[in-house]
Each structure stands twice: as C-alpha cells, then as structure tokens.
Model the fold of this input.
Amino acid sequence: MADKRETDAISGVSTTGHEWDGIKELDNPMPSWWLYTFYACIAFAALWVVLYPSLPFVRGVLGYTTRNDFTGVMREQQARAEPMLARLRAATPAEIAADPELRGYALAGGRIAFATNCAGCHGSGGQGATGGFPSLADDDWLYGGTFDAIHTTISVGARNGENPEARGVQMPAFAAAGLSMAQVDDVAEYVLSLSGTGGDATAAARGAPLYVENCVACHGETGEGNRDLGAPRLNDRIWLYGGDKASVVRTIAYARAGVMPSWSSRLDAATINMLTVYVHALGGGER
Ligand code: HEC
Ligand code: HEC
Done:
C-alpha cells in the first residue's frame, strides 16, 4: 500500500496517512505530561509486582498479605483483651455481675456473642420465637433463671445428642402412646383450661383424669411445670409452641423436642460466663 503521508498545509504537521471520507488525521506527538505520567505508571506497576503479591503464586519481596495483616491485628487485640478475659474466666457469673467493671465488660461482650451465636434462634433481644425457642427475657424458665442454671443450660444445651449431660427429657407422643385422638382433644381442652383459655368445659372435664394419669408426673398437678425435667409450665399463657387449640393438640399427639446446641465445646469459658451475665440481665434473672 502506498504511503499516503503528506504535510498538512494549514498546521504544517505531517498526517498519519489514514483517510476516512476525505478526513485526514494529523500525526501530532503525545503531550509530554501524558507521556511521562504513562511511563511513571509502568514503573510503579513494575515496582509493585516486585514488592507485593500481584501475579498468581508470586508473593512479593515484602512478604505482605492482607491475611497476615489481619492475623497480626487480631493477635494484638487478643493480647490487649487477655487480662480481662482471664478475670472473666476465673470468676463465677455471680461474681462478675457483682463487680461493676467486670459486669460492664461482660454485658458488652455478652451482647456481641449473643448476636453472633444465639439471636438466630432466640431473637436479637432474647425475646424468643414460636416454634420452641423460649424467651430469655421473661421470668418464665424451663430450667431456671439463676446464674448457675443459665450457665449450665448454655454449656450443655438440650436434647442435642452431642452432650451426654444435655438437659430436657422427651415428652411421649400420645397419639402413639395410648391416647385416642378424641382423648388428645379432651386433654388439650383441659390444658387450655389451666390458663383459663379453654372453650369447652365438658371436654375439659373429660380430659382432667387423663391429665392426672398421663401428664402430672412431668407437668405437675396444677400444670406448674418441672424445671428438673424441663417440662414447661402449662398454667400460664406463655407457650413455646403456640397456645391455640390446634397447636396444643399437635403437641400432645406428636410431642415436640426443642434442640438447643451445647456451647461448652464451641465457646470458651470467658464467653459462656459473659453470655450468662448477659442473659441473666435480659429481664428474668433469678437470685
Ligand atoms: C438452634 C437454635 C438455638 C440456638 C442457636 C441457641 N438456642 Fe438456646 N434454646 C433453644 C431451644 C430450642 C431451647 C429450649 C430447649 C427446650 O425446649 O428444652 C433453648 C433454651 C435455652 C435456654 C433455657 C431457657 C429456659 O427457659 O430455661 C437458655 C438460657 C438458652 N437457650 C440460651 C442460649 C444462648 C445463650 C445461646 C447462644 C450461645 C443459645 N441459647 C443458642 C435453641 C437454641
Ligand atoms: C416425660 C415427661 C412429660 C410427660 C409425661 C408429658 N410431657 Fe408435655 N412436655 C414435656 C416436655 C419436656 C416439654 C417441652 C418440649 C420442648 O421443649 O420441646 C413438654 C411440652 C408440652 C406442651 C407444650 C407447651 C408449650 O409451651 O408450648 C404441652 C401443651 C404439653 N407438654 C402437654 C402435655 C400433656 C397434655 C401431657 C399428658 C397427656 C404431657 N404433656 C405429658 C414433658 C412431658
């Protein structure tokens, strides 16, 4: 192809030889500020490749990684927190709660640990959720609201099959354990009558002897519950699984088995102590 370069008559600059529909391009040099910035960028990139991780499998002579950076910061944080954590580990939850400095730290740390580990089931303020997740912010306790009781529950959990000490007996599923569905219905009416929410007094009267025979051992004569077994109180209007007739029938016929993980193998002693103090302070803590 013939070289079509020519000198432009007006500017006196040579053209590139490209032409589109009669429009020609002047061959001006790059502005030098642009050119030197460009060279500087290349030099910077080359230096970066040598110093920092950039190409696959090339670490860079500084040995810097964001992961190292992070573990360093974490270790520093841990070292700073360690004296306080050691005190929180050594003290009992009751001692922590009695010491204003430890208590403040435990409440702040407990709140964070609760949001991370517990809120998914118990709600962000420990308010619980229907479906078997008890409120931790009221004074209705399955296993007790003293520091010791809460500490044990958190450590071992309930019905989790992972901790041999786990709390919680298993309620029988009465549809398969000797009651007809009509009897389940009657005893459900009786259960509802214990908290004054039943509708059918005749059915409740039929259910009363069934309750004495099948339920008293765990739930108590007046439905007061049993903390050693984790059998909930039935004569209040607080329900784990719902207090409408259909839910109560379902509970009695097929039973429920709420599972709470065991935390002693997942969280360190200081964190469990902080959580105990935090949960105790949510509203229902007992002496
Ligand atoms: C997977 C869901 C789940 C998670 C996560 C969970 N829990 Fe539970 N928790 C339960 C269930 C279900 C029960 C009720 C067990 C029962 O019915 O016997 C329970 C019971 C409890 C109780 C006993 C309440 C009472 O009335 O005696 C305490 C205290 C408790 N949880 C604290 C915690 C703390 C603290 C954490 C976080 C470290 C936590 N839970 C994480 C499901 C969970
Ligand atoms: C072996 C002990 C045991 C026996 C016997 C038993 N229960 Fe239970 N019951 C429990 C336990 C433990 C729970 C809690 C289950 C859970 O937390 O998942 C429970 C839960 C319930 C609940 C749900 C309460 C709520 O807050 O939602 C009802 C209702 C109930 N039982 C009624 C009965 C009736 C009626 C009988 C007799 C026909 C009976 N139970 C017999 C142990 C027992």
The radius of gyration is 36 Å.
